[in-house]
Amino acid sequence: MEVPKDQIANLIEHGLYDSAEMLGCFLVSSSTVSAETSPQLKAENLILLGDALFHQREHRRAIHTYKQALHHYTRIPKQSSGISRSSLSLSTRSSVNASSISAINENEVRFKIASSHFALNETKAAIAEV
Fold first, then answer.
1. What would the pLDDT profile of 97-122 be if each residue is shown by its tens digit?
2. Residue 60 is part of which domain span?
3. Residue at 70 is within a domain
4. 29/22 Cα distance (integer angstroms)
5. CA 21 to CA 51: how far, in whole Å?
6. Number of separate domains in the chain
7. CA-to-CA distance for 50 and 59, rounded, in angstroms?
């Protein structure tokens, strides 16, 4: 499912928001049906769909989509291992960091929610979100 995510990002980058929304809806619906899809992948797909909606000025739908993404983000299991970080060598530490880095920045998503609220002239809600 990595290729469609790249295609959505490419469509958004080129301003083809309607097409990005359609592909995003497909990705979100297919990842919702599949029980084996990880919460992180669901959250990433929802964020891409939210970005397409935001650019189409469908701010209410974008807010709802971003909040769904945050909900799935909170369900991502935190990496817990018996090995402490201080006992890892430098090369091992870099590979662990690369695998545990999430493509989701919670603060960035909250900022997008606040921006959507601001576009709807909901200043108090925008301030509360940040």
1. 333 345 678 999 999 999 999 999 99
2. 2-77
3. yes
4. 11
5. 9
6. 1
7. 9
